[in-house]
Amino acid sequence: MKSFLASVGLLAVCVSLTARAADLPVKAPAALPPPYNWSGFYLGPNLGGAWTSGSLPISVNNLYGGITEFIGGGQAGYNFQAGHFLVGVEGDFDGATFGHSVLPTPTLGTVRQNWTGTIAGRFGLVEDKWLLYAKLGGGWVHSNATLNFPGVTWQGSNTSSGWLAGVGVEYGFKPNWTLKLEYDYIGLGNWTSPTVPPIQLNRDLQMVKFGANYKFERGIADTVAPTRAAHSPERSENEDLAQKSQNPIADLVSVPFQSNTNFNAGPFNRTQEVLNIQPVIPLRINADWNVISRTIIPVVSQPNPFFNNNTNGIGDITQQFFFTPTHPGALIWGVGPIFTVPSATDPILGTGRVLFGPTAVALVTPGHWVIGVLVNNQWSVGGNPLRPNVNAFLAQPFVNYNMAHGWYLTSSPVITADWLAAPGQQWTVPIGGGFGRIFKLGDQPVSANIAGYYNVIRPTGASNWQLRAQLSLLFPER
């Protein structure tokens, strides 16, 4: 009887607990954000580099290695998305700024491309904010040419058409904005001059473009970002932002404008000025990995090696991608590819070659310090075959110490090596440093610094010292 009563009591307790558990509210699983919507009209700007794989055989010798040029313009199109698949149509137009491509003996002639236009279908695979696509369609290129050598004198212009094939990747950066990187090939065939004998100019064109698009249909709905806990002392907030701005692979959008003034360069001891515009944009792959996009667009004033003057324009554009874990340990690191496109507006401002190689960065942030190093090496893999090959190394160690009220000390010398140069002419090794501060212009966070460097090892004729000033616009998530 006691056993029965105990069993009944235990059953009653279980029923009571079960009833109470049934009355407890059930916590719903966290709602996933809606996927990015790629459908609709869009338009935007682009810029990049282009080069021809052309040839101009004259008396069996090829005296023309093609054109390398800066291109800039815009594109517009429409996407239709069905699940993970996308189809669309896109047209673009770009002006080409190169001056002219001169044959080894300038009196023999010049070749110039003025503009390109394309229209193509896009076919892509969508994974939330990422779009991987291919393009197939047609392109048009307008060119000028002048030939002037024994037996042949001719000048003409031509707009010719050909087939277009391309691939690209695009990322939904904001509800109405996307960023893209694209490679295109336009097969144009030959342009034959009406001369005796006829000269065939091959002008197949390759292009790499960096672009942004504005979507008229929003990709995602606006969401309210969680409110961040306020930093009690102002120093800690400034120091946190300073450390992020000093980290090349931080989850922070920034747009640095870096002025490098190199004194006593070249045979006439002139000043070289390089303004690097370097937007850094973190792109999320998933919960565990980010890819950090770092683009370097140089605006250059370059001393002429033969005349006592400077040539001004845009140099070759470099793109880096760092794949980095979102939750690193004490060592923060990233690795990925780096490539440079021949986008210089004048031959003296660039290598004329397509460069490619690996890049990596590693750093630690103990206390008030940010200490690390960025390295890469690039080799020439395309471009004008008549221009010299490239095998170039870069290492940039950086040490920063952050102090009160946003002030910091900094040293980040850029060490370079040209592996193909003569012995004793390969390395450039600077030493030096400076200081900077984090502050606000209105509501805009800004980091500014100035530093000086002396090249203790340098090739003959290279600049002996450099003044570097940088202003970075910072866009932390709010």
From TrEMBL:
Residues 23-216 form the Outer membrane protein beta-barrel domain. It comes from the Bacteria. Gene3D superfamilies: 2.40.160.20. Residues 1-21 form the signal peptide. Transmembrane segments: none annotated. Keywords: Cell outer membrane, Membrane, Signal. The keyword Signal applies. It is found in: Cell outer membrane. The keyword Transcription does not apply. It holds the Pfam family OMP_b-brl. Belongs to the Omp25/RopB family. This is Opacity protein-like surface antigen.
